[in-house]
Amino acid sequence: MSNVLRVGGVWEEALLEELIYAIAHIAHAEQHLLEIETSQGKPVIPELINALRSCRKDIGDILFNNLQVAKSSTDPEFRGSAESFWCFLKHTSMALIHCDEIAEKLIKRLINGLGSSANEADMDKVKDIASNLIDVYRVRKMLRDTLMKVLKEPPTNIDSSSLVRCREDLCLDSDSE
């Protein structure tokens, strides 16, 4: 377990969780901007997308610093273990956020299906939605528990390029990093 977690306990776990949420929300914001560009059919806001990616990587560096994960330089053409670790954290945290959004949408459906005029068929739909909601919460808990377990015992030294990122992050120009 990293020294940071041993010293701070619950507060440090909360910090790590907030860092993970920040990474996920920034990545999610990037995703929405990319959707805007897709609907436009041309790149219209690449500078803003790149700025968000840079912010996300900065938060990632803070996370790595708090985990006391050392990064060493290797050939940037190959995926290193730090990059794989970063990808795991980013994608798992985004999945956690998406589970929250799925749950929110299912709850709205559940509330709408519980009207006073609900018939037996409607009640079957409500039961299905409630079952789906329970499954989403189960998956969300598993994702969060997995993230926190990995963050509580991170690798202490991982080989990678000096900038840890997922492959799609590589589309940034070198001068904007």
Q: How many strand segments?
A: 2
Instruction: Tell me the helix content.
Output: over 70%
Q: What proportion strand?
A: under 5%
Shape descriptor reads flat
Q: What number of structural domains do the residues give? A: 1
Describe this structure in words.
- The chain is mainly alpha-helical.
- It has one domain (3-176).
- Helices cover 71% and strands 3% of the residues.
- It contains 5 helices and 2 strands; from the N terminus they run αααβααβ.
- It has helices at residues 3-8, 10-40, 46-67, 81-113, 120-152; strands spanning 70-72, 157-159.
- Strands 1-2 form a two-stranded parallel sheet.
- α4 runs antiparallel to α5.
- The longest helix is centred in the middle third of the chain and has 33 residues, at 81-113.
- It is flat.
Q: Topology of this protein?
A:
Blueprint: H1 3-8, H2 10-40, H3 46-67, E1 70-72, H4 81-113, H5 120-152, E2 157-159
Parallel strand pairs: 1-2
Helix pairs in contact: 2-3, 2-4, 4-5
Question: Summed up, what is this model?
Answer:
This protein is mainly alpha-helical and 177 residues long. The protein has one domain (3-176).
